[in-house]
Amino acid sequence: MITSEKDNSFYSEKSLKKYQLELLHWKDLLIYNLDEISFLKLFLNAEIFKPNIPNLFENLKEYLDSVEDIKSQNSRFYNLIEKNLKILKDAIENGKVPEENFITAFEKLRKDIGKYFEEFYDLKLEIFHYTGSLLKQND
Q: Partners of 103 in the beta sheet?
């Protein structure tokens, strides 16, 4: 247990556990997003769209490229979260205070992952707005 810092400081055990929970929440969201990414890839590759739509395949390809980019970002964030969870686990269990730049890096991760989730949800919305009226109808 880390006792040399104030209870409300970043490095108190209570604070470290709070940040650990935040990281675990992000990790869960990233895992869930992988399922959504898989669905989007299947959806964009499916033969469910009306024929003779101008630039359909080019637009779908662009969306697929964006989904692949999101998938890469997802993996990068997942790895960063795993690294940070290991640091926090070590700090909580062994009383080892993280490096000084940990706070700055954590805040940057919080900002970057928030931007990632926003971009991902915007991409999903854009895809569904574009494709919604292009689906084949069962007559």
A: none
105-118 burial by CB neighbour count: b if 16+ within 10 A, else e?
Answer: ebeebeeebeebee
pLDDT in tens, 77-114: 999 999 999 999 988 888 777 777 888 899 999 999 99
DSSP assignment of 88-105 equals HHHHHHH-PPPPTTHHHH
Rounded Cα distance between 110 and 94, Å, is 25
How far is the C-alpha of 130 from the C-alpha of 127, rounded, in Å?
A: 5
- Angle CA(62)–CA(65)–CA(67) in degrees, nearest 5? 110
| Structure tokens, 124 | 């999903």
For residue 41, the SS3 value is helix
Q: What DSSP character marks residue 47? A: S
Q: Closest Cα to residue 66, out of 138, 120, 9?
A: 120
What CA–CA distance (Å, rounded) separates 59 from 64?
9
Cα–Cα distance measured from residue 115 to residue 92, given in angstroms and rounded to the nearest whole number: 28
Report the predicted TM-score, pTM, of the whole model to 2 decimal places: 0.86
